Amino acid sequence: MGFSYPSMKVLLFFHLLFFTSLMPPISCNKVSLGLYYESLCPYSASFIIDSLAMIFTDGLINIVDLNLVPWGNARLYGNQTIKCQHGAYECLLNTVEACAIDVWPDVKEHFPFIYCVENLVYEHNYTYWETCFEKLGLDASPVTRCLNSERGTQLELGYAAETNALQPPHKYVPWVVVDGQPLYDDYRDFVSFICKAYKGTAKPSACTESSFGRTRKLKMNLINILYGEETSKSELFRALPAVFSWLKRNKIVASF
């Protein structure tokens, strides 16, 4: 199967991860960042694609302990019957993403997969979620086994309990929490809350005012490379397989 338009956004994300991997790690007491969401919520998908991925820029991930909780506004009835706000397919993808987190506990391993799936949600192509295994060079079998076994249900029940235990209770999704404190409508400004909560002495460049300008410049440069007038979309489509192959060979896709 050829690469589609959403893969270009995924490629942009890999570029951001690559630049982050060049930065030295920071020893610190990490700030907890919790995202309580549901897979087919357009606001959740938009936040993951347009905002949350920025934790991988300017060393921010080095001071963050990211916890993704794919449950959201789902409800539990009777004998472990789960009903999701956006229907049965959302329950499926919630479990897929829960299994991915379980199979690849390192955030740098499971976040790219979740990013890929949510990018397909963002582009209204979520029924092709299984293409994310091929795009990322991942073995689908452990996630498939989890999805088709009791393990997937157990994971979702655990996320249900975690979500229902929130104090104060969540009001909507995405529900973003920094060090136990919900951000409410300020959730897209999560970076500033993380920087304020961080107590370490050596702050990453993401927490300095000048870094925001550098990050924006980096993103714009990458966007120009991917979408600029000088490069046609047909050329980009032809180039993408080779780029992904290079990313995989250099262990940027599989292990970051």
UniProtKB/TrEMBL annotation:
Keywords: Glycoprotein, Secreted, Signal. It comes from the Eukaryota. The keyword Signal applies. It is found in: Secreted. InterPro entries: Interferon-induced_GILT. Its main location: secreted. The keyword Glycoprotein applies. Residues 1-28 form the signal peptide. PANTHER family: GAMMA-INTERFERON INDUCIBLE LYSOSOMAL THIOL REDUCTASE GILT, GAMMA-INTERFERON-INDUCIBLE LYSOSOMAL THIOL REDUCTASE. Belongs to the GILT family. This is Gamma-interferon-inducible lysosomal thiol reductase. It comes from Rehmannia glutinosa (Chinese foxglove).
